[in-house]
Amino acid sequence: MAVPMAKSPGNSPGEETTGPPPRKSSIAPGVFWPSAIIVAGFVLYATVFRTSAQKTISTVQEEIVGGLGWYYTALVSLFVIFALWVGIGRFGDIKLGADDDKPEFSMGSWLAMLFAAGMGIGLVFWGVAEPLNHFVSPRPGVGKAEAERSEFAMVQTFLHWGIHPWAIYIVVGLAVAYAVHRKGRPVSIRWALEPILGNRIRGRWGDAIDVIALVGTLFGVATSLGFGVVQIASGLESRGWVADADKSVQVALIIGITLIATISVVTGIGKGIKWLSNINMTLAGVLLLFALITGPTLFILNTFVEDIGAYLQNIVTLSFNTGATEGHDGTAWVSSWTVFYWGWWISWAPFVGIFIARISRGRTVREFVTGVLLIPTLLTFVWFAVFGGSALHRETLGGGGLVGEDGTVGTNSAFFQLLDTLPGGAFVAGAALLLIVLFFVTSSDSGSFVVDMLASGGDPEPPVWSRVFWAGSEGAVAVALLVASGSGTTSLTTLQTAAIITALPFSLVMIGLCVATVRSFRSERQAYLAAVRLKQEQRLVDQAVTAVEEGLENGTLSNGAEKSPAATDTPAM
After folding, report:
1. Distances from the Cα of 156 to the Cα of 118, 121, 127, 326, 407, angstroms
2. Is 19 left (phi over 0), alpha (psi -120 to 50) or beta?
3. Which of 146, 151, 132, 159 lies closest to 413, judged by CA?
4. 229: pLDDT confidence band, cut at 50, 70 and 90?
5. CB 515: neighbour CB atoms within 10 A?
6. How large is the angle between the packed helices 375-396 and 297-319, nearest 10 degrees?
7. Is the distance from CB of 447 to CB of 195 less than 8 angstroms?
8. Fewer Cβ neighbours under 10 Å: the N or C end of the chain?
């Protein structure tokens, strides 16, 4: 049962509630132009001064990851605690919308969209490569036995892709969803901070917050697009469908994906993005079932149960592990994997969080937390269990061949190497390539939609020209940096590192979002309890009045009144 909305939703009694300023333009100049200038300036710097940019950005990143690993580790773990607390606790019945709002999208479409936007493409890219990497080069302190390294590989992968990243998304998504759907604010992170910043969100503070979110989102989507086409090109080359997957092929792929994403984002969430997300989930489910049935089925099911148990048993220890007990090697390993992931997920939080908030009208807080935190996590674990488990089975009990003779893993080609071991050949590889393309299109169009909303002042339906501009900008940035990287992906790596650096200032914004959410929920709860008390008092008054009226009607009150002055019949003392 949803908590009824008070007259002034989310605000304490007597608190003045003012709406957003009237729109004067189809864009928010304080967000649009600074973001565009920052993006253009960085792309020029990363392409013209490629070596200098890489060195400078890498140095900054090393200082952040190396010196603040403890901060990221503790913060992300606290985000998990926060997400569970608001979902399980007394705030769970608050509805993200008006009391009579129904969910805008069906449960299936809602889950498909948030899953595809949140990490769909990452599962394809890392589904085989990450468990293999952890198996070959485990964290210092892990035993050398194959069975121990195999279990560690899956459990560590579960940590990186489980409830922790989704808790990060919840912090942003829940705060924005409450501000947008419950309080009627524009779709923007700044308005989620209104409970603690007040009217300052209307000025430069609010613009700065949205610029950080917009730039981080565009950088993150552009780098994923660039690295993704490298994987697609690797798959095309491994199947012999192209003779040489050089930069021209990769650029053509980026242009094609960007065009499809532009068409999708122009049609809006209710059509293109929703349809593509549903197709993604269907195709991913078919490929998953095929790999499960044709692969080492019994081994996958057995190890899945074991790995889930090991994950639950060790989740607290793993969540707070900084590698300090293993010295420099231990902290270096944790920094290069876990801390890197936490920074990457935080850099994606504005994009995914805002997108999830936009599609979550009509859900309660408990539904939101359950849907975002638990269901995608379970699906993610199944995916890694099937593909990662199949790869580990082949390396430990099968014919091997997925790890090179030098002990390295081909990250870009590992997924296709595993598919080559399954029946189906070209058909399965073609389906996998189609899935990767569709996942990239979904990430690109949903990312473009979020950028459009931020650049348009929080408009939930931004203008078409803005959608085309930002979707094209993401593709152009990816193309420019890929071409400028020469024979490698140096510039793309530089952009990816820059995106993760933006996670540091945005992590402070996320702390503010947690505080703002608690304040809003407490105000809502207090207003609800006050309304309940008033209703109870009114009911007691109504019952008393009714009793008096009934007594007058049947005469019981008048008879009682005649008999009550018995003292007058008593002889005077």
Report:
1. 19, 19, 13, 17, 19
2. beta
3. 132
4. confident
5. 14
6. 120
7. no
8. C
